[in-house]
């Protein structure tokens, strides 16, 4: 029918025109024609035909009619509409229905349905229902109900009732006529009815009118009571229905089946729309509700070159406003005005190839009532249409689409047509990057520092040396360990600024005055095999032995295991690696008191020994004199001695007693040659004797304290002790008689003291130093002596289960816990474990980045060296196994096709950089589309510490589109650290980009790159050998980086290139499946 009547679409249709009040409907049967007064035939509306009868309404052109239905050969038209704007409503028993601006939505059982402003709602029992501005509200007993400006209330016995702008009329007068879509009563068969009907048709016009009126009054009298009352009970009567969904809510509907038909039809429509998407992605579906969103409209005017893009955006959200028929009035530089319309209602009006110059733009008013909530810009806006491209970013953010908004299967159609020409044969088999379980070897316990023989210094424990040495600045001395046959000696100094030691010969040299400095020698001695490890339980506190004040004696040689190479220390930084498979050893954790230390699995073997010296370096100083003993105790008539010691002077020295505080208590003499002082007691009491020492031009006075007792005295076996919190130390007193001994601590918060007989026991409380005074009394006479106690640290090493136990080189030690498992040792383990182990250097496989260098390890954990081919690429490795950067840097490029990626594993696999796809331009529609994995990939790669570049797959057909593509890239990478170039991916797609010629494609590449460069990034072009040589002018791209794709042993492309994609089927830990592999010669 549409073709028959040359039907065309009209964007918007005002269905209110179908409803006009005050019309008289004249009817004509049996070929008779009826016209209203003062009307021309040409103004009539043909409204129906039955049995050859035709009906027209006044004031309407025949060409304005709407064909509304046909049943049994009848045709119906509605007024005020162009014949060419018909809407096909349906077909039943040979009837056809049309609606304007319709959309074909399906076909079932030979019937066709269209939906546009009118929506097909359902079909039940052969009847068809539609919703537009008029809503079908139900069907019961063959009746149809519609709602528009009037609401159909009921139908009984062939009568129709309407409510709305007009009331129901039941008198003999004709009610005002209504326009719109109604349904005729079904014909009733039977001879009797036919005879009556024939008689009725043979009447005159006036008789027929009177007869029809009488019949109508009679029928209405019978049914008015029930039907009219029922109709008035409907609570919700409305004058206009906006949409099906909003009106169904809360409305009591006549006919439950009608409601089900509405719901089923709606679901069918959604399912049909979703079925179009090959990727099963969400599609944006037209929803008339979008018309009513409203808001303030803003214009964005953009010109790149001889073009103008007008974007209608929501001021609040910044998004494009779609499904609104915007139009603007444009005035060009010559003053000529024109109207531009947004025909596809996507929120953008775009014109290309227009004259450069200054234009004015004014938004035209939206006349349809449905757009009344939009606030449009007033006045005019000026914009310059550029003559030449500026190669700067333009705003395309609101034009970028997600893949869920397009048919990705038709838009993302990149074809990798790079052929595999040849492949280098691998010299080393590729293996996955893993960290292998470590091995452990046993070390002798005498190489482990006893925590109690360490002194606290700046919060750390320092080892008490095995021997002490003092040398002068510039003096040298050769050191040797005490064990005969020591080999593989390694020497180190804790402070090279004060004293150095030759790493091979052990020659000590004083550099600057200071100290003490610890000189350490680690060496091996011949020994027997080490027995298998014995499990060690968690460290437990053990009774603390009494520390002694005397230095530790030099250790004697003890049998040890056969010598083994000293392991190198563990890498400073461990890069995360994939989880080991089930057959690999795994780390565990062994609880240790309130803390925990790592547990591992390993093999055992080996030993070594360590010896240390405490070195003090002195410098040339002025002569000095001191008293070796600053106080003496003596009884009357007895003598005691004290010695003056001179340092840093070798000349003649004189000694004189120059003062005595009380010579009635004691007297003193001094040997003028050697400085020995002799004190003689005279009476009980205290005095001070002063000695003057002359050393050339230097004079020094010294005071000697003298105590004369009544025949009693006390001496202590120690003058200083060191303890830890909760640990104890004992000092023994020697007295002259059988009196009592007491002791007092100068600071009970540091240490406490107790006396048992002649034993004085001190207990450490917290870190610090205190003076202990011991008093001996016999009757009224007493004698005193003192010693100092130092509490080192805040934790007793025997109870310390947290501080790591290390060897003299600072390496963590381990203890066995059985079943080939090991855990890190703590201080307390020193006193409970019998064997200690060092972890050997970690072992790896595959590509690894360690301490900033890249290595490749074979399956057995050994490093490769020299020139090697791995996965078809040639690499050069130094003698230590590190990759020589000059031979190229390995990297990958990824997109959504690579799925989810473990970026830490990728980084650990030796990958140095990654080039990530930002997005692409659609191959068919040309939309700018973001890669759905872009944000996830760039965040993950950056967090893993990889260098990051990006690329965009182009389908641009001119320079303007190339600038838009570059602008999208710049928009999306803003805020991310880009440390590699930004590439334009130029290759086949089977789409719009393939059709341009070489010159245009070259211009596209230059426009993209110049825009990227002007934004401060390094631009480049990706293409394979064929495209670089035959589909663009590569020589014109010399100012940009070239990323060559050629799958061959060695590239045969004769032009310059900065990166080489040498295969597309590579393997990298952290990525499932194949991945593109690249070699970069950028040098970074």
Automatic annotation (TrEMBL):
It comes from the Bacteria. It holds the Pfam family Glyco_hydro_25. The keyword Aminoacyl-tRNA synthetase does not apply. PROSITE patterns: CW (PS51170), GLYCOSYL_HYDROL_F25_2 (PS51904). Gene3D superfamilies: 2.60.40.1080, Cholin Binding, Glycosidases. The lineage of its organism: Bacteria, Bacillati, Bacillota, Clostridia, Lachnospirales. Keywords: Membrane, Repeat, Transmembrane, Transmembrane helix. This is BIG2 domain-containing protein.
